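Write out the 3D structure for:
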Amino acid sequence: MIIESLIIHILGDFYMIKDPSKIYGTTPTGDELNHHIRRYSWISLLLFLLILFAMPEVDFVLTAAIIMSVVMVNTIHKVFIMPLIQRLVRYTSSSEEVLTKLVQKNRSLVVLSISQILQLVWILLISEGLTGVRQSIHWIIIGIGFILITMYLYQTKKQFEFKKTALLFFSSLVVSTATLYVIQRLVTGSMTHSEAEFFFTWDTSYYHTFISYALTLLLLMKPANLLIRKISSAYNPKLESDNISRLSPKEDQQRAGFKGAGAMIGTLERILILLSFSAGQLLPIVAILSIKAFARYKRIVEEASFSEYFVIGTLLSVSVTFLLYLMLQSLITAGY
């Protein structure tokens, strides 16, 4: 359940938020937190259903307890712990030492890194700690989770329209009823062979490989883009005031290219490099990097600062992809 918990966390923290760095760089408003918690919870429910349908032999009570715990810990972290981290970073950056100046310059990256490390530790502890305890503990956790969710929904009901609230309620009711029906048939053993073949037709080893690749690709896209952008932004020549003052807004837009194109190119680059690593072919990587360099050839030749920034970003991208490839191989070898 570690990989599934990590997928829930990555989807909720990076893909359900338009700008993940904003929630860590500044103190989010109550509405932003409420929307984030709701989306995080829906992602958890959808992945829980995926696990039940893909792996019928899984202990659904343990699975529900782990996912419920992950959601509760994330909520507690966003509401209580993250503001403390932001205050600590602001307090540390008020000093005049070199290290604190570095923290001040990269405050959002520091807050993001500390928050993600803490949540990763919590996810690992939850996934491993709940595996060996009695099932009664799992039921207690599920009960506490439902009580807290009910209290939270009651407190935030005024922030959402009645139609949306009704739609969410009835859709969750239908999904929950269908899930309980399948679980009941599995537990009582009354599911016929044709029904079981309809719901579960694939080997569970395919599921393990699928979620391993899913976790790797999710890390490879938005989180990797955010990390590389934060690290390489210190070397971005566009941020230098003397360069900006020489260019008109139109010229600056022409040099920068389309908005978001750099992130899309980086994402496609890392996906293709990962596929090349997986296939054991290194020649396509050379072609990918050559195409990327050709697209920026003029600026690379004319501007030394941009060429250094380009090389730093490219090396970071390849390094992150290679590390994630090693992680993927370890997960598949270990049974995932």
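The CA atoms of residues 235 and 309 lie 6 Å apart.
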